[in-house]
Structure prediction request, 234 residues.
Amino acid sequence: MTATDAIGAAGEAVVEARILRQGLAVARPRPDRGVDLLAVAPDMTRAVPVQVKTFSRPSIEVEKGWFRPVDVVLAVVWMRDAGEEVFLFDGLIGVERFLGASAQTASWQQGGRYAISDMSAPSQRARIAPFAEDWAILHRRLGLPLPAAPADATPYRLTRHARERVEAGEVQEAWIAETLAEPDRQGPDPRRPGITLSWRRIAAFGDRHLRVAHRDDNGHIIVITAFFDRGASS
Prediction:
């Protein structure tokens, strides 16, 4: 086995372990024809194809051909001494959401390929942060409810507006939960009585501050909205 093969196998093992922790089963298609793993529903009736790409440094490379003829979920793994990071893209649409304006470049539109050799800059980290560990993609594709929050987590409910921001990839629900549980700063909304504002610095999103507006509802927290506040400071 070459060093490249070893890194690839390690990345697949990381993704397989993460899928199992979601309460799903895992299968390995043989032969491998563009699908490395299958994330399988607990009742074994439905499966989601997953393609794993592993890099030994924070970089990313995507190709349109990976999503033909099967629109796979793409798992990008960064294997580094400090530990691995995993990013999930919901098919070709998910990749183009990550690419943003870059999806209109000739390299993508005509060549069907796009690569960024160094994703370590804060701006690039912020760009990819919404896709980190987004395992809810598998549950949505399988038609399964999202995993329940831990029993000791702060009970909360997202309004439709807040949920739309999460589903659009603008913020991660885990970041909202962290902000509610351990805010860096908190105070009343001066313009809306009964509304509390909580801020938390999100390291995975370029150290920007997530602002969560919420109110109490008989012991439960109703999250009204959540967005990154450019004007916030510690």
